[in-house]
Write a structure and sequence with these properties.
Keywords: Membrane, Transmembrane, Transmembrane helix
Distance between the termini: 60 Å
Number of helices: 11
Strand content: under 5%
Number of domains: 1
Order of helices and strands: HHHHHHHHHHH
Transmembrane segments: 29-56, 77-94, 100-119, 131-150, 156-173, 180-198, 232-253
Number of strands: 0
Helix content: over 70%
Structural class: mainly alpha
Largest sheet: none
Shape: flat
Length: 258
């Protein structure tokens, strides 16, 4: 009837005592694929072509992590985490890829200190401050680490982003868990090899890079499934975490293989 309260999937699962793991599903996976293709296309154009989809990824990552932790609205924390990501981007553009570790680690260190100072000035209770501190530090770290796409070799970003774009939708298919997991990793490796053909990288290194990015992406996808996530969590963290989590692998494996 019109007077009934509609429960979300998360609320219904919690009320029924079912598993706290709720997979994001195909729609967020499709958005992840679109954003991955945008990252790959932007990377092919150069650092400034990559910047716009990367900033979008960092914004959605910052908002999604807070919502995943049940903190909403959290405008100050989201803005702070997002600003950390943009600062890392700016530092990378100013210093170049050769100084990427210093730019990323330096930004992360400054942002952790800034978050700590702001939380110490908060008038909230100790438990709330501690929870806010952990959420803001983690969100900032993810936004900053996502800048690894900007630090990585151009070809590595193309390969890694295409791998994530292939892996996550396959993982979201309504198949038994181990089957979709294996399928996602195979799709990542295959898309990586295909990306290698587009960029002139040998198929085996490209497939290995794609598989590594796929592993990290599927970990991010799994994290976005925890603790009875809402639809909003799925449409933010579920979209962004796979790509954000893959950035370190894209950077490190890109240096080793590309």
């Amino acid at each position: 009837t019109s007077g009934e309260v509609r429960l979300t999937d998360a609320q219904r699962a919690r009320a029924e005592g079912r598993s706290p793991v709720i997979e994001p599903g195909m729609q967020p996976a499709a958005l992840t694929a679109v954003l991955g293709v945008l990252l790959a296309g932007g990377a092919a154009l150069g650092p400034f072509g990559l910047l716009l989809p990367l900033v979008l990824l960092q914004a959605v990552t910052a908002a999604g992590w807070f919502r995943l932790n049940g903190m909403w609205p959290a405008r100050q924390g989201i803005a702070l985490a997002f600003a950390g990501g943009v600062t890392a981007d700016t530092a990378l553009l100013a210093t170049g890829r050769e100084h990427a570790p210093v730019a990323i680690i330096g930004t992360l260190g400054v942002w952790v200190l800034l978050v700590l100072v702001l939380q110490l000035r908060s008038h909230a209770g100790s438990d709330e401050r501690q929870y806010g501190l952990m959420a803001t530090v983690a969100s900032s770290a993810l936004a900053v680490l996502a800048a690894g796409h900007l630090a990585a070799a151009q070809d590595a970003v193309v390969i890694g982003a295409l791998a994530v774009a292939a892996a996550v939708p396959v993982r979201a298919l309504p198949l038994p868990g181990p089957v979709s997991l294996a399928g996602g990793l195979l799709a990542a490796a295959g898309a990586g090899a295909a990306g290698g053909l587009l960029t002139g990288v040998q198929p085996l290194p490209a497939a290995l890079l794609g598989a590594g990015a796929g592993v990290c992406a599927l970990i991010g996808h799994r994290v976005a499934s925890y603790d009875y996530p809402s639809r909003f969590v799925h449409m933010t963290a579920g979209v962004a975490l796979p790509l954000a989590a893959s950035a370190p692998a894209v950077y490190l494996l890109g240096r080793a293989l590309v």
